[in-house]
């Protein structure tokens, strides 16, 4: 992949949303790159697709090209510091940078893959999500935990969240073996980041979220025709 194929669009459309009862900031930038063809081609050439050992992602992941990660972070790092009120003394550290494709059929989903999740409890850990594939694919849903009202699972909230979640499952049973793509008795879907090709979003990693997967449409292991995304996880230390 040549550097010339990874250029941030200076005329990209920026929106700062404040979601949920907790008014969590979420960055959404449409038409983020001038051209996504090179990034998509890089996904098609990648040979290291496999399960993500660092998460319960329901599909396959492959390493993102370093040039892409550098271009993206150079384009948004000042915005990340400002919007998420990151102390200026901290340094941005990429944690994981991957292409992602949803491939797990519903019959094989683990319990963790059937409920919303958070990426980290860290106070300055952020997820950067870039929708790449042309076409119509599932949004990313934002969920509220009904027993506690929590939308973000901070380190201080983690124990209560886990305790009340276990109590809910004990009282009501495990959720059906399917993707969560709507509100349930346990979780409320209160907002979503709609899928749009070349849309980039950034949000705190402790925000409860899940892909609103429709299996017939979204499960596909082909990076040319599946729901291909680029995911960059960063922390500030």
Rg from Cα: 17 Å
The largest sheet is:
7 strands, antiparallel
What proportion of the residues form beta strands (DSSP E)? 25-35%
**Spatial arrangement of strands, main beta sheet:** 1-2-8-5-10-4-3
* Helical proportion, percent range: 10-25%
Please state the overall shape, judged from the principal axes of the Cα atoms: globular
Detailed description of the structure:
With 237 residues, this protein is α+β, with helices and mostly antiparallel strands. It is 21% helix and 27% strand. The chain is built from four helices and ten strands; from the N terminus they run E-E-H-E-H-E-E-E-H-E-E-E-H-E. The strands form two sheets. The protein has a seven-stranded antiparallel beta sheet, with helices on one face. A three-stranded antiparallel beta sheet has the order 7-6-9, with no helix packed on it. The protein is globular. The two termini are 30 Å apart. The mean pLDDT is 96.
């Amino acid at each position: 992949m040549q550097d010339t194929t990874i250029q941030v669009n200076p005329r990209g459309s920026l929106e700062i949303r404040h979601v949920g009862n907790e008014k969590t900031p979420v960055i959404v930038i449409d038409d983020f790159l001038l051209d996504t063809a090179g990034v998509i081609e890089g996904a098609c050439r990648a040979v290291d697709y496999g399960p993500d050992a660092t998460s319960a992602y329901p599909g396959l992941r492959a390493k993102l090209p370093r040039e892409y990660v550098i271009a993206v972070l150079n384009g948004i790092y000042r915005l990340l510091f400002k919007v998420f009120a990151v102390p200026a003394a901290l340094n941005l550290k990429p944690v994981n940078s991957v292409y992602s494709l949803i491939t797990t059929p519903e019959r094989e989903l683990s319990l963790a893959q059937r409920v919303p999740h958070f990426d980290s409890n860290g106070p300055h850990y952020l997820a950067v999500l870039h929708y790449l594939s042309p076409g119509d694919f599932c949004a990313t849903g934002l969920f509220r935990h009904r027993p506690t009202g929590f939308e973000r699972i901070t380190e201080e909230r983690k124990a209560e969240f886990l305790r009340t979640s276990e109590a809910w499952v004990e009282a009501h049973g495990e959720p059906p073996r399917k993707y969560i793509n709507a509100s349930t008795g346990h979780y409320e879907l209160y907002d979503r980041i709609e899928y749009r090709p070349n849309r980039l979003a950034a949000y705190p990693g402790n925000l409860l979220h899940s892909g609103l997967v429709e299996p017939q449409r979204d499960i596909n292991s082909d990076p040319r025709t599946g729901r291909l995304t680029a995911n960059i996880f960063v922390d500030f230390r």
